[in-house]
Design goal:
Layout lengths: L3 E13 L6 E3 L21 E2 L2 E2 H9 L4 E4 L23 E2 L7 E2 L5 H11 L2 E6 L6 H12 L5 H8 L10 E4 L12 H13 L10 E8 L3 H13 L10 E9 L9 H12 L1 H15 L6 E9 L18 H16 L4 E7 L9 E4 L2 E4 L1 H8 L7 E8 L2 E6 L2 E6 L1 E7 L3 E8 L6 E6 L7 E8 L18 E9 L6 E4 L3 E8 L1
Parallel strand pairs: 1-21, 2-5, 2-13, 5-8, 8-9, 9-10, 10-11, 11-12, 12-13
Antiparallel strand pairs: 1-16, 3-4, 6-7, 14-15, 16-19, 17-18, 19-20, 20-25, 21-24, 22-23, 22-25
Length: about 500
């Protein structure tokens, strides 16, 4: 008897999985930028124009689709003109949000655009509403995108880029309910209306303006912001193309020290993302039934307590198999709600929070979370199809309250030639035999690949001395032509199955 069943409903398409759901986020925070992607052209660490070659190659390999920059909280105290022109003339500024360290602004607009070009990603700029002005952000858009003969366009040319950058995605502020200015929803909406008035379409394609959405699943913030933006002074309705929500599932224990109960607690917190996506989209539909305004989750991930021996303001944390399962559970949710989301950006890319890469001097290591992004690549751009899971539930105690965590999670997508099924087994110690139903006789063989690490060690992670402790492993090919449709997944695992027609 199988332990669980997955029904794949090939005729029930959800929507195309926007590759931007696999986006990333880089902030001037700790070693995310400096010593993360940027070492400067004079560094002995292999680089091209100051950008680390190993980091660029790693992100290029997973086809990073979009990267959000320069923050985060940093964005609402960032003035873009500080980061252009000769490096020797760029000012030193205090990073007031992250440790009061000095930012020399050697990594600015041009450097970030070059980094995006190196890894094949689209840039997503987060503009300064908290301490900035509409003119400052308006000028940034012109500087980046205008192809004509304006003073700002000539300045961009003089700084090395005759061709405009074509930046499409613009965040109008960040976390303006908190570090971005501590606005009320109505006050922020008023600022959004003012700023967006001046952000014109000077690029090769129209701007995609993203308003600040809620902290977690705060429906009150969303309702009041949308009501003020869309139903404010008429007949003027400002351009708004996206609304961003932030959700950190936090921690249970620490990054490396956690019990099996805490293992399950964090996985349960991760799957609360689904409620946010469903309820935020439902509310947005009341104002925007045609879904012209896209739901964006441009910060998400784990957030563990400060790592002993490191600067607590730099948010460095180790990344284990547990973090990998958090990423896989979340990406399954995004795939299964591909009709409701247009972009998501894990926090953050390098050396900060749930990072994909860790660097130290000339060393770089790919984290377990990185391998999930590699494993899930075939989903990008494919058609998400419905899948129904029948499985046991795991009862967990969080603060004296009992909650239920499904032991399995999955998502499926179809390209016409292949079907990709990604499966997360949340059980820390029990493999599961799964009956996969709904496949027609057109599907023959199945190829498997899975996260691999020392058996039973749910604390496994990669270090600079053991960089391949957690990696991807190809599984033996299985023949489905005989009618057998049962597949076993390991305990505490993430598995990708590719079915060929």
């Amino acid at each position: 008897m199988p332990d669980a069943k997955i029904d794949i409903l090939l005729d029930e398409q959800i929507g195309t999985i926007n590759p931007n759901l696999y986006g990333h986020f880089m902030e001037h925070l700790g070693a995310c930028v400096d010593q993360g992607c940027w070492v400067g052209p004079n560094s002995k660490i292999p680089n091209t124009n100051g950008i680390r070659d190993d980091v660029a190659a790693a992100l290029n390999k997973i086809s990073a689709p979009v990267i959000r920059w320069p923050g985060g909280c940093f964005a609402d105290d960032y003035h873009w003109r500080d980061g252009i022109g000769p490096e020797s003339e760029r000012p030193d500024r205090i990073n007031i949000h992250w440790g009061n360290v000095i930012d020399d602004n050697h990594f600015g607009t041009h450097e970030f655009i070059e980094f995006c070009n190196r890894v094949g990603a689209k840039p997503y700029f987060s503009g300064n509403v908290g301490s900035g002005s509409p003119q400052e952000m308006r000028d940034w858009v012109e500087y980046c995108n205008f192809s004509g003969n304006s003073t700002l366009a000539r300045e961009r040319t003089a700084n090395g880029s005759k061709e405009p950058f074509g930046v499409k995605y613009w965040g109008v502020g960040n976390e303006n309910w908190g570090c971005g200015g501590n606005f009320t929803p109505e006050d922020y909406a008023t600022e959004y209306r003012r700023f967006s008035t001046y952000l014109r379409d000077w690029g090769s394609e129209p701007n995609y303006l993203i308003a600040c959405g809620p902290n977690g699943n705060d429906l009150d913030w969303t309702r009041r912001v949308l009501d003020k933006i869309l139903n404010g002074f008429k007949p003027f309705v400002p351009p708004i193309h996206g609304l961003s929500a932030h959700y950190y599932c936090g921690t249970a224990g620490t990054d490396l020290v956690y019990s099996t109960d805490q293992w399950y607690e964090l996985l349960w917190k991760a799957i609360q993302m689904e409620q946010l996506v469903v309820e935020q989209r439902e509310l947005m539909d009341e104002y925007d039934p045609e879904r012209k305004i896209g739901l964006v989750v441009d910060e998400w991930g784990t957030w563990h307590p400060p790592t002993p021996g490191r600067n607590s303001a730099f948010l460095w944390q180790q990344n284990t198999v547990r973090d990998a399962l958090v990423a896989a559970l979340t990406l399954n949710i995004f795939n299964n709600h591909a009709d409701k989301l247009v972009m998501a950006n894990i926090a953050q890319t390098i050396n900060v929070l749930q990072s994909l890469l860790l660097t130290e001097a000339d060393k770089m290591v790919k984290t377990p979370t990185y391998h999930i992004y590699d494993l899930y690549q075939p989903h990008k751009g494919a058609e998400a199809v419905q899948s129904v899971v029948e499985c046991a539930s795991i009862s967990i105690n969080i603060g004296g309250e009992y909650y239920s965590l499904p032991s399995l999670s999955c998502s499926a997508s179809d390209t016409g030639d292949t079907l990709t099924l990604t499966i997360v087994n949340c059980s820390h110690d029990s493999p599961q035999m799964i009956e996969i139903r709904g496949l027609t006789s057109n599907f023959t063989s199945v190829l498997g690949e899975a996260l691999h690490y020392p058996y039973g060690d749910i604390h496994s992670h990669n270090t600079f001395d053991s960089a391949d402790n957690v990696h991807l492993k190809t599984l033996p090919e299985t023949d489905f032509s005989s009618g057998s449709n049962v597949y076993q997944v390991s305990a505490a695992s993430v598995t990708r199955l590719t079915f060929t027609r």
